[in-house]
Every structure is written in C-alpha cells, then in structure tokens.
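ok posting inputs for the (2R)-2,3-dihydroxypropanoic acid job
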Amino acid sequence: MSDSKATVLVPGKIHPRVLERFEGQVEIITAPSGAEPALSADVAARIKAIAVSGGVNARWIDALPNLEIIANFGVGYDGVDTKHAASRGIVVTNTPDVLNDEVADTTIALLINTVRRLYQAESYLREGKWAANGPFALSPFSLRGRKVGLFGMGRIGQEIAKRLEPFKVEIGYHTRSKRSELPYTYYASLKEMAQAVDVLICIVPGTAETHKVLNAEIFAALGSNGVFINVGRGSSVDEDALLKALQDGVLGAAGLDVFYAEPKVPDAFLSLPNVTLLPHVASASVPTRNAMADLVADNVLGWLKERKALTPVPETPVKG
Ligand code: DGY
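and the output
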C-alpha cells in the first residue's frame, strides 16, 4: 500500500454501495469467504476493519492481529463471533432501525398471503384456470377474529404490532421481560402464548437461547387453526417438527422468510399447499438495502477516522 489509507477487508459478497462508499477512502481487500482467511501475514497485519454480509468466525478474527472493527450488514449478527471479538477488544456493529419499517411491512404481507393464499390465487389466474375452471377455492383461513402473538418485541416487533392494530386482531407478545409501557398482552412463556393465540410471529434474533425453541410442542399448542410466521432466524425453528406439524394438520399454515440452512430449503416444504415461502427478503428493497449499506460504511469510516461507531452491538459496547 503506497499511501496511509486504512485497510478494510471484505470477505465474500457485500452490497455494492458499501464498496462505492469505501472507494478512495480506504484500501479495500476482498477475499473469498470460508472457514478461514487465505491472506499473507503482511496483508493480514494491515487490516483494521471488516465489512461483511455473512459471517466472521474466531479464526478470521485471530488471523487479523490489528483488527479493530467488524461492521455487519444486517440487524441480525448471528454470523459474527461477538464473544471472541469482545475478548479481543474489537467492536462489532450492525444495521438496526433503518430496516424496521421494511421488515414490518413484509411481515404483514407474508401473514396475509399465508392466511389468504394470494400467491396461489394469482398463479391460478395466470395459468388461465379462472376462465377454464371457475373461481379459485375459498381460503380455508381468514385473519378475522384472530389473536396474534409476537415472539420478540424489539424495535421491529413493535413496528409489526403497530401495523397489526388497524387489522382489528388481538395482540400479545412473549419476551424475557414484560414491557409495561406497551398496550399488548404479555405472556410469561412461549408455550403459554402459543396456547392462547392462533397466529405466532417469530422476530427474535438467532442466539443459543432461541435455537430450535419453536418445536413440536409449540406447534401443537398453536393448533390446527394456527398460523406460524417466521421473519427472525431459521435457527429458532426445529424444521423437521414444523414440516411434520404442517403435513399432519397439527399446525394450520406457515409463512417463512428464513430457514435453518439458507439458501437450502427442505424439498418437502415445496409441495405443501399451506406454506408461503420467501427467500429471506424481509428487508430486501433497494432503498432499505441502500440505507443498510450506508450504515455499514458510516460505521467503518467513522471508526477509522474518529473512532466513532454509530451502532455497536450490546456485546461490544464502545466506551466514551
Ligand atoms: C437482517 O438484517 O438481519 C435481515 O435478516 C437481513 O434481511
């Protein structure tokens, strides 16, 4: 490197706007993502920041002796080993808030589509079946009269709840602790909520604590009229249990934007009539992804220029 620009590593692919924002400001090193980095010691020693859409494990962190910040593209940062980063004094940032409205909008669309089968109805029209065979079948479910339970009541959860209010459904939630300021019914356990509601929306982050907590017991509690929506992380779901519950009619329907081993989706889901499947698009509009890209760039550039991280995650707080 000829001048004194700081060096930023971008493993794998990232939104192009992040790279555009870095252009001329920093030295960019790209590398294939993988189990561990393939970088010379000299290059590794220059790297002060990582901008990533995906994962950064302990081996990547350990390979970079002068790493100071990992800026994650996405509000969920389950791919980044924050514990290891914290042990090395490395700041991790994510992209909260700028996607709240988009994800909440998509959640409502996914819920209504799951309940009313609008995608199948449109396909029916496009395939010429309306004229040939008559009206599309009535949807077995409706949103009318439903009780909706949110598993997770953070910033996105609250936006989803606000959007649900005009739909005239009852709203409840389960989180570790009650949010007394919120006008919704609190359930002390996930199972209690699943028994009380007939729509369960998952918007919790993927952590060890939430791993596969949506299991056969929860789907049975939700019941044959129940609808499960997941816009959080696939790791929160026991997918085998979900499939079986949907196949056996133990659970009524599901709308899924996230999966356990993305981008792989178990084939068995594809043949079920009572599921709506999206390829992790809750925040995937051009304006929202641009805003996320800007926040990644602002975190990295702010840190490198002024040691200012705009949105550090709670596991790696920035003092001062
Ligand atoms: C996030 O930001 O974590 C989303 O899942 C990406 O769309």
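notes: Residues 74-76, 99, 282-283 surround (2R)-2,3-dihydroxypropanoic acid (CB under 6 Å). The chain has 13 helices and twelve strands.
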